[in-house]
Amino acid sequence: MIKIACVLGLAALSGACVAQPPTTSSFSAEEAAFIRKTGTGVIVGHAFRTRSKGQVVNAAGEVVRLIPATAYARERFSSIFQKTKYLPHWRYPNGQIDPLYAQFTRTTKTTARGRFSFDNVAPGTYFVATQVIWGEEDAIFREGGTVYDEVTLTGKETEPVEVILSGH
Questions:
Q1: Cα angle vertex 11, ends 81, 134, to 5°?
Q2: From residue 168, how far is each of 25, 85, 90, 129, 136 by CA, in Å?
Q3: Which of 44, 125, 126, 139 is deepest in the core (most CB within 10 A)?
């Protein structure tokens, strides 16, 4: 029991309980409204991480979010991810977000091989994000984290736009 408490304490000290930095931008439903329009765009992708020994781990059965790249979202992604496109799961903040922010997103799930798609996407710039986490479900320490990328649809695409969510 003492060993578990020490490990949990170590996790807290190492950043497992990270607070989300406050945003200075306010969420604007008007700025994000393009996500609710019907478009002709298609976004397809593959979400995975490569382990240190080269083994690929797919984001199997994970929720993928399509998020309008508004000023609020840009500030949020910049403060959370800084200059990377990957964040270890234990560093992901658990702070409050504007409740409308989640209402102006779309979601889908990945296949067992980490593939996903969004159809009828309106022109605009979006963040596409999901998590890739592996290890035993009941383990204290698991590996992986959240990956994202940014994609822009112009409305003139004749082929699906492909996005790779690997953290690179």
A1: 65
A2: 27, 6, 19, 13, 25
A3: 126
- Distance between alpha carbon 161 and the CA centroid of its chain, in Å? 18
The answer to whether 95 touches 20, Cβ cutoff 8 Å, is yes
Distance of CA 152 to CAs 73, 129, 149, Å?
A: 15, 14, 10
Q: Output the pLDDT for position 24.
A: 66
Q: Tell me the residue type at 106.
A: R
Residue with tokens 């200075």: 24
Q: Which residues of 12-24 are buried (b: 16+ CB within 10 A; e: fewer)?
A: eeeebeeeeeebe
Domains of the chain: which residue ranges? 20-165
pLDDT at residue 9 in the model = 31
Q: Which CATH class is domain 20-165?
A: mainly beta
Whether pTM > 0.70 for this model: the answer is: yes
CA 48 distance to own-chain centroid: 12
